[in-house]
Amino acid sequence: MQGVMMQADVVVMGGAVMGASCAYWLTKMNPGLQVLVVERDPSFAYASTALSVASIRQQFSTAVNVAISRFGIDFIRNFQERLGVDVGIGSLGLKENGYLFLAHSAEGAGLLEDLAAMQRSFGAATEVWTPEQIKARFPWLEVGDLTAGSFGNRDEGWFDNMGLLAGFRAAAKAQGATFVTDEVVGIETASGKVTGVRLAKAGLVACGVAVNAAGTRAGQVARMAGLDLPVEPRKRTVFVIDAPNARHPDAPLLVDTGFYLRPEQGHWITATVPQEDGPCAADDFEPDLHLFEDVIWEQLYARAPGFDAVKVVRHWVGHYAYNTLDQNAILGPHPDLPNLFFMNGFSGHGLQQSPAVGRGLAEHILTGGWQSLDLSDLSIDRVLKGQPFREAAIV
Ligand SMILES: Cc1cc2nc3c(=O)[nH]c(=O)nc-3n(C[C@H](O)[C@H](O)[C@H](O)COP(=O)(O)OP(=O)(O)OC[C@H]3O[C@@H](n4cnc5c(N)ncnc54)[C@H](O)[C@@H]3O)c2cc1C
User: Of 332, 310, 313, which Cα lies nearest the Cα of 379?
Assistant: First the structure.
C-alpha cells in the first residue's frame, strides 16, 4: 500500500508511551534504523497512557523498580534536555509533592523501614515518620490508627502524561521513525523467528524485530505469535472530587489501605482497587460509580475529616494492563521467538517506567543484552517458569 513501508528493521506494535519511548531510544541510538510504529487509535482516548494518574515515586519494594524510577525522575525533571530534540515542550510540569505510604501495624512499620533503607541506597530520599511526625507535616490527617508512614520529600509527585507521550513521539519522528495508523492483526513466523507483522490496512510488513507495546491488548498480540502472556485489562474507576473543607495543595499522593488520593488543581483525585477485581473486556469503559460511596468515602473521611462534604465532579475509567503473575513489567525477548520483544504488564506503574524501559529495550534490541540497567529480573523467563517476582508496593 502506498505511503507505508513494506519492510522495517523494527516494527513497534502499539504507539502510546511505551511504543513511542522504544522508537525514540532506538532512533536516538541508531539514527539509520528503520523503525515503524503501528497504532490503531492515535487519539489515545482509551490508552492507559492517557487515562493514567500520571505520578512517579521512588518507593518500590524491588531494587530494579527503584533503579528504573531513579532514571525516570531525572528524565522527567529535565525532559527537554534529556530528550535532546527540541519538540516545543519545555517542561512536564513535575509537581514534587511526594508519596506518603501509611503503615497500620508494627510489622508494616518495620517493612517501611527496610524498604526506605533499600531505596536510600539507590539515592532516593525516603524517610520513615512516626504518626506524630506525619501529623506535624500534614495536620489535616488523622493518625491515631497508624504506626508509621514513609514519605519521599523529593523525586516523587506527578507530571504531564500526554506531554511525555507527545515528546517521545515528536522526537522519534524527528529522528526518522515512521508512525502509522493501522491495526496489527497477525504476526508471521518461520524457523523460530518473527518474519513480519500483518496490518489490517497495509498488509504484511517484513521486519527484523517486532516489539509488543500493545498495553491492555498485549495478550492478544502475543497470541498472534502463538504465545501466552499473562496480561489482561483490569478496570480502574478514578474520581475527581471537590472537598471545600479540605484544601491542601501541598498534599502528597497518599496511599492508604483502601484508596489513594492526591490533589489536582483545587480538586482531588482518588481511586480504589475493587474487592472483586478481575479481567474486563478491552473495550469496556463503563464506570464502577458505586465505589466512591461504598468503598472510598468512609475511609477518606476517617483519615481526613475535612472530606465531610464531598462532590464527585468528574470520573474516568482506565485499564491497567494487569500482569496476573506478579503485577510487574514483562520485558525483553521471548526465548521461543528471540526477535519478538515485550514491554508489557506494567499494571499501575508504567508511565513513570517508560523512559528507562524504552532505553532498556532499545539497548537490548541493538546489542543483544541489557546495558545501562540490568532489567533481567523483569524478563519473561520468570513467567515461563511460573516464578513471580513480586512488587509489594502496588498502587
Ligand atoms: C487509572 C490508571 C492510573 C494509573 N496511574 C499511574 C501512575 O500514577 N503512574 C504510572 O507510572 N503509571 C500509572 N498507570 C499505568 C500507566 O498509565 C501504564 O502502565 C502505561 O501508560 C502503559 O503504557 P503502554 O504504552 O504500555 O500502554 P497503553 O497506553 O495502553 O498503549 C497501548 C497502545 O497500543 C495500541 N494497540 C493495542 N493493540 C494494538 C494493535 N493490535 N495494533 C495497533 N495498536 C495497538 C493501543 O491502541 C494503545 O494506544 C495508571 C494506569 C491507569 C489505568
Answer: 332
Pocket-forming residues, ligand 1, beta carbon under 6 Å: 13-14, 16-19, 38-41, 44, 47-49, 51-55, 183-184, 213-217, 221, 236, 238, 318-321, 346, 348-352
State the pLDDT at residue 392: 85
Q: Output the CA 55–ligand 1 centroid distance in Å.
A: 14
Q: List pLDDT tens digits, range 98-111.
A: 999 999 999 999 99
- Taking the CA of residue 42 as reference, the ligand 1 atom at the shortest distance is 49
The DSSP output letter for 105 is S
* Pocket residue to mutate for ligand 1, from 4, 43, 49, most atoms within 8 A of Cβ: 49
| Ligand 1 centroid – CA 321 distance (Å) | 7
At 3, the pLDDT band (50, 70, 90 cuts) reads low
With the most atoms of ligand 1 within 8 angstroms of its CB, the residue from 12, 13, 44, 53 to mutate is 53
Residues 6+ apart with CB under 8 A from 100: 134, 138, 149, 150, 151, 252, 253, 254, 255
**DSSP β-ladder status, 337-344 and 203-212:** parallel
Nearest CA among 167, 211, 180, 210 for reference residue 355: 167
Rounded distance between C-alpha atoms, residue 326 and residue 389, angstroms? 6
- What's the CA-to-centroid distance between 73 and ligand 1, angstroms? 19
Place of cell 525477548: 333
| Element containing residue 133 per DSSP (H, E) | helix 131-137
CA of 20 to the centre of ligand 1 (A): 11
For residue 346, name the pLDDT band (cuts at 50, 70, 90).
very high
184 in Cβ contact with 19 (< 8 Å): no
Q: Please indicate, yes or no, whether the overall pTM of this predicted structure exceeds 0.90.
A: yes
Q: In the predicted model, what is the mean pLDDT of residues 315-322?
A: 98
**Residue recorded with cell 525532559:** 79
Asked if 194 and 205 count as a contact pair (C-beta separation under 8 A), the reply is no
Contact assessment for residue 322 and residue 233, using Cβ atoms and an 8 Å cutoff: yes
Domains of the chain listed by start with CATH number: 7-70+161-230+326-385 (3.50.50.60), 99-155+233-320 (3.30.9.10)
Query: Which SS3 state, helix, strand or coil, does residue 179 take?
Result: strand
Q: At what angle do helices 354-367 and 161-174 cross, to 10 degrees?
A: 30
Residue 1: what pLDDT? 43
